[in-house]
Amino acid sequence: MTNCFEFMVQDKLNHSSWPASISDFHDCGLFFQMTVSARGSSLVILFGSSAFSRWLLLPQLDIGCSMADPEDLFWNTEKLSEHLNYPDTLSTVQAIAFLYRNELIHR
Known about the structure:
Blueprint: E1 5-11, E2 16-27, E3 31-38, E4 41-49, E5 54-58, E6 63-67, H1 73-80, H2 86-101
Antiparallel strand pairs: 1-2, 2-3, 3-4, 4-5, 5-6
Helix pairs in contact: 1-2
């Protein structure tokens, strides 16, 4: 199975889009690990869930936050944008949604 994927990030607020990629994607059992690259940024992301919540960690930036369903782009964007710039937030949230829609991660 490949662990590299490309997708387009859609910024409906600013009527723009940009290419992004997911690399080093791994199902680690209790969480998923990946690198998301777009617009000159490259972020290592850990995304997982417990019995009570979903969470996202950006270990290289010391950022962690709770997340909603992978397809709840509005809530996840609002939550992550408290910690990260808007383009990186959109790239990250839409990467997780892309993996979910393609059945590479589960709820």
